[in-house]
Specification:
Blueprint lengths: L3 H21 L7 H8 L5 H36 L11 H14 L9 H21 L5 H24 L4 H12 L7 H20 L1 H7 L3 H6 L4 H23 L5 H9 L7 H25 L8 H24 L1
Helix pairs in contact: 1-3, 1-13, 2-3, 3-8, 3-11, 3-12, 3-13, 4-5, 4-6, 4-7, 4-11, 5-6, 5-11, 8-11, 9-13, 12-13
């Protein structure tokens, strides 16, 4: 436990530094003094607008979504006892993104600002529930990955169909933006809309984290020690669905962050599933803020999408993890 606290403190400090760097860097770099003044509501109005309306909300959105994906990935790995589990790999993100895209396609989002997060949460809940049901009937890692691949393929195919029949170019642009993932142009209001669902979901996952430690001993041993898996599964499904769905309603589909972060922190917490949740969330938040800074500073004619960069960097890591797992098994 003594090792866990410094790790969390270090990661939290790095997250704060990264958010400050995100305010500092951009197409028009600001000085450290100018950023501090703008954050305090002082200095030129243009610099205050740049910080409070553009850079800070964007950095906070990346931080929040990264933390959500990191904690959710670690929780799913603990529940399914599968080190390759992650919302993106298992189809949760794709199904949630599809639900959000359906809301955009049918113009339901104009009925209420709550419709987009509610649709994304419903998609995430459905996918997570299917995975939890499958995990209760099989212990095969390959089977779960294939189910996740099937969910992702179905969601991707249906999304392609919607993109093909998009009624207007504006609808098409919105749907493409959600499917590729981005925190550009996010506002404080967007964050406030998703935050209650994210907090509720993460609170459930963190509250149940001791159950993941017991479950790592095997289901029978966990039950003998007082764990009720029948209670843990639906609570994890609900927590993951709320958190991931709300995160996707804020940033769209961003994969692999929730896979990589738990793998990095797990050796630092003695491979304890319960202790990995918080540092995995902090590390994923740090990685996503840094990735978004890189996206903004990249010398490209048009800004790259954060979800695309996460996939380009995360997919090779996923393949390496699968390969290493099979080598160790042999």
């Amino acid at each position: 436990m003594n090792r866990e606290l410094p790790l969390n403190a270090i990661l939290a400090s790095l997250c704060i530094i990264a958010v400050f760097a995100a305010c500092l860097l951009g197409s028009t770099p600001l000085s450290v003094d100018a950023v501090f003044k703008a954050l305090a509501g002082l200095g030129p109005e243009t610099e205050q607008v740049v910080i409070w309306s553009i850079r800070l909300p964007r950095a906070l959105a990346a931080l929040l979504v990264g933390f959500t994906l990191g904690v959710s990935g670690a929780a799913l790995q603990g529940l399914l006892r599968n080190p390759l589990a992650e919302p993106g790999v298992l189809g949760v993100s794709a199904t949630s993104t599809l639900a959000a895209t359906v809301m955009i396609y049918f113009n339901v989002v104009h009925l209420s600002p709550w419709m987009l997060p509610l649709g994304a949460i419903a998609g995430a809940l459905l996918a997570t529930a299917l995975l939890a049901a499958a995990a209760s009937r099989t212990r095969s890692v390959v089977t779960l990955i294939l189910i996740g691949f099937g969910l992702s393929s179905f969601a991707g195919a249906f999304m392609s169909l919607l993109l093909n029949v998009a009624p207007t170019p504006f609808t098409l642009a919105d749907m493409v933006n959600w499917s590729l993932g981005s925190v550009a142009n996010r506002s404080v209001d967007d964050i406030a809309l998703a935050l209650p669902f994210i907090v509720a979901g993460l609170a459930l996952l963190l509250h149940e984290r001791s159950g993941y430690r017991l479950l790592s001993l095997g289901e029978e041993s966990a039950e003998a020690l007082g764990l009720n898996p029948a209670r843990l599964r639906p609570l994890t499904v609900l927590g993951t669905g709320l958190a991931v769905g709300a995160g996707i309603s804020l940033a769209g589909a961003i994969g692999f962050v929730g896979l990589v972060a738990p793998h990095i922190v797990r050796p630092l917490v003695n491979h304890d599933p319960a202790r990995s949740l918080l540092p995995a969330g902090l590390l994923a938040a740090l990685l996503l803020v840094l990735a978004d800074i890189g996206v903004r500073l990249a010398p490209t004619t048009s800004e790259l999408n954060l979800g695309v960069i996460a996939a380009v960097l995360g997919a090779p890591v996923f393949v390496w993890l699968v390969f290493r797992r099979e080598v160790h098994r042999d």
